[in-house]
Every structure is written in structure tokens, then in C-alpha cells.
Amino acid sequence: MKFASTRLVCADIGSMVAFYEMVAGTQAEWLAPVFAEIVTPSATLAFGSAETVALFKEGSAEPAANRTAIVEFMVEDVDATFERLKDRAEIVHEPKLMPWGNRAAQFRDPEGTVVSLFQPATDAAKQRFGAR
């Protein structure tokens, strides 16, 4: 099995895709008017409009209802990335060292999902991610 992507179901797919393009610093590929992807070297973040839910099963997903998942991006410099984004998104917390060895900051996307930006900070964390 290969983990392929995480998909966010969006009430306003345009604003969600624009937000994540800003965070990731890359353009999304629109595969259909109701579906887009941001492909990074390690993972894909996909976006489906609320209308796509009916293609699977009506009511099986709901936009802006997430309170369990956190979308995470590993960055080279969490402090610099935080400075770039702090006036453009709702801040959950400023950069700080987490107990598992990452320095992280968190924001909310336009529909409320928490987005974590982190960099491995301790030797153990750097080793886990193959970072310097």
C-alpha cells in the first residue's frame, strides 16, 4: 500500500486552494473545476468541492467540520515561514518547540482546519526526517 494523498472537502474550493498555494509556495493543478491537487515531493494535498461528496455517498463528508486532523508541512525555517504568513492567516500558535522535537507554528485554513508548519529541531527529530 502507498499513501497517496489527503483530500479536504471544501465549501469554497477557490479560497482553500489559494490559501494552500500561498502556504506551500506552489501552484495547484486543477484536474476538474471541482478538484485540484498540490503535489509536493513527499505528499499530495487534494481539494474537492462539496459537490464531489455526492459522487461517493451523500453526507459522507462535510466542509469546515474537521476538528481532528492537522495538515502538516515540513519547512526549512519555521520562523521565517511564520513571519511570511502571520498576517495572512489566523494564528493558532507562534513557533515553539514541541515535546517530540519539532519547532512548530500553527494556523487555521479558511475553513478551520489546523495547518502546522514545522522543522525538526532536536537531533532525534532531525534523524527521523533525514534533516541536517
Rg value:
15 Å
Major β-sheet strand ordering: 1-4-3-2
Q: Which ranges are low-confidence, i.e. pLDDT below 50, for 5 or more consecutive residues?
A: none
Q: Structural class of the helix and strand makeup?
A: alpha/beta
* Number of alpha- plus pi-helical segments: 4
Q: Assign the CATH superfamily of the largest domain.
A: 2,3-Dihydroxybiphenyl 1,2-Dioxygenase, domain 1
CATH class of the largest domain: Alpha Beta
Shape: globular
Helix content: 10-25%
* SS elements, strand count: 8
What features would you describe in this structure?
The protein is globular and about 45 Å long. The chain has 132 residues and is of the alpha/beta class. Strands 1-4-3-2 form a 4-stranded mixed β-sheet, covered by helices on one side. Strands 5-8-7-6 form a 4-stranded mixed β-sheet. The protein is built from 4 helices and 8 strands; from the N terminus they run E-H-E-E-E-H-E-H-E-E-E-H. The two termini are 29 Å apart. The protein folds into 2 domains: 1-54, 2,3-Dihydroxybiphenyl 1,2-Dioxygenase, domain 1; 66-132, 2,3-Dihydroxybiphenyl 1,2-Dioxygenase, domain 1, CATH 3.10.180.10. Helix content is 23%, strand content 36%. The longest helix is centred in the N-terminal third of the chain and has 12 residues, at 13-24. A hairpin with a 2-residue loop joins strand 2 (29-32) and strand 3 (35-39).
